[in-house]
């Protein structure tokens, strides 16, 4: 029995959303497989390459050797930090883009990373504070003050805090804060000698102390972001329509700001002020997952560590046995992406 053209069109329309959803799920699974592969490479590649079989034996077989010590004390902490920092920086960028409807919102471009870095350096240089857990709270304060400063600077004039004004204010304030941070570091190089790599952005750590202190804050930030995702879909419609639909805009904004502070502050304290991840990854996630923030956040959680760990691997391979810091590699990738975004589209609302 054949169906009429109208029935056939209705059936096709019903099946199209299901097909798109299935495609997004398959894409997410494929990205997860790529992430596992990149994690294996991160554990295997360094100043000396360790076969993947030996990596697995060290992690799961109880193998005790020099390679095993290298993996457990150096490469595993580094890889876990890449996972955590990638998720934190990229997800905070996705949150900021969704809340401000600004496709160029990013913790690095808007000066949020610079605020956290300056607050930490000031705590060390001016107050003699060095314990990682204490420094995290200064990083949180720095992110909050930087965010307030950028928003206040962008609010002047009739147009208010437009995406372009926020971007320009963030670049200006971020440049000032980075200049102040560099000044403090070079005024007392002995105190900040160990922070030179951190200031560029680095995953090179020994041990798990930084991870233990910062991971809980990142986990809380991720949970807050996932809770906010449905409301941010409504926020994208505009404030008036969001209110008419009963969305709690004030509570949503508070939760988003809190999540961004936790994610950016903790990641900056652990890995330094890495830039451009919050710009690149959400853009790719939006291109793949569409406008639904739930899909954007899901893809961001997987794509971000892929990008950061891949950049770190490139940095390790570029000058073996030495290496290029991951912050430099991400800047080389992110700067052309930013230029392309500005040239390819107007800096308007999402």
UniProtKB/TrEMBL annotation:
Name by which UniProt lists this protein: Iron chelate uptake ABC transporter family permease subunit
Bilayer-crossing regions: 26-47, 79-96, 108-129, 135-154, 166-187, 211-235, 256-284, 296-314, 326-344
Family listed: Belongs to the binding-protein-dependent transport system permease family. FecCD subfamily.
UniProt-listed Pfam families: FecCD
Compartment annotation: Cell membrane
Keyword set, alphabetical order: Cell membrane, Membrane, Transmembrane, Transmembrane helix, Transport
Any one Gene Ontology molecular-function term assigned to this protein's record: transmembrane transporter activity
GO biological process terms on file: siderophore-iron import into cell
């Amino acid at each position: 029995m054949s169906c009429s053209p109208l029935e056939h069109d209705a059936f096709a329309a019903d099946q199209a959303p299901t097909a798109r959803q299935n495609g997004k799920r398959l894409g997410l699974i494929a990205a997860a497989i790529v992430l596992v592969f990149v994690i294996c490479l991160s554990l295997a590649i360094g100043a000396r390459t360790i076969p993947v079989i030996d990596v697995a034996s060290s992690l799961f077989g109880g193998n005790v050797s020099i390679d095993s010590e290298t993996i457990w004390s150096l490469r595993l902490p580094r890889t876990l930090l890449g996972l955590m920092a990638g998720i934190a920086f990229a997800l905070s960028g996705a949150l900021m883009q969704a809340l401000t409807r600004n496709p160029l919102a990013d913790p690095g471009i808007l000066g949020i990373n610079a605020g956290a870095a300056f607050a930490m350096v000031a705590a060390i240089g001016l107050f003699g504070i060095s314990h990682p857990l204490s420094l995290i709270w200064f990083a949180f304060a720095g992110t909050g003050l930087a965010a307030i400063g950028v928003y206040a600077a962008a609010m002047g004039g009739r147009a208010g805090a437009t995406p372009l004004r926020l971007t320009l204010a963030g670049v200006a304030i971020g440049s000032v804060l980075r200049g102040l941070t560099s000044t403090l570091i070079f005024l007392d190089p002995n105190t900040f000698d160990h922070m030179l790599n951190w200031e560029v952005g680095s995953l090179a750590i020994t041990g798990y102390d930084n991870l233990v202190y910062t991971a809980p804050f990142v986990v809380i930030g991720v949970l807050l972001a996932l809770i906010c995702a449905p409301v941010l879909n409504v926020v994208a419609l505009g404030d008036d329509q969001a209110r008419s639909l009963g969305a709690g805009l004030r509570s949503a904004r508070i939760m988003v700001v809190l999540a961004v502070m936790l994610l950016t502050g903790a990641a900056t304290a652990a890995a330094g002020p890495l830039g451009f991840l919050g710009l690149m990854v959400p853009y790719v996630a939006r291109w793949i997952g569409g406008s639904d923030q739930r899909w954007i956040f899901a893809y961001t959680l997987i794509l971000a560590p892929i990008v950061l760990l891949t950049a770190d691997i490139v940095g390790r391979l570029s000058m073996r046995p030495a290496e290029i810091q991951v912050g430099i590699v991400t800047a080389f990738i992110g700067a052309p992406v930013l230029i392309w975004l500005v040239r390819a589209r107007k800096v308007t609302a999402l």
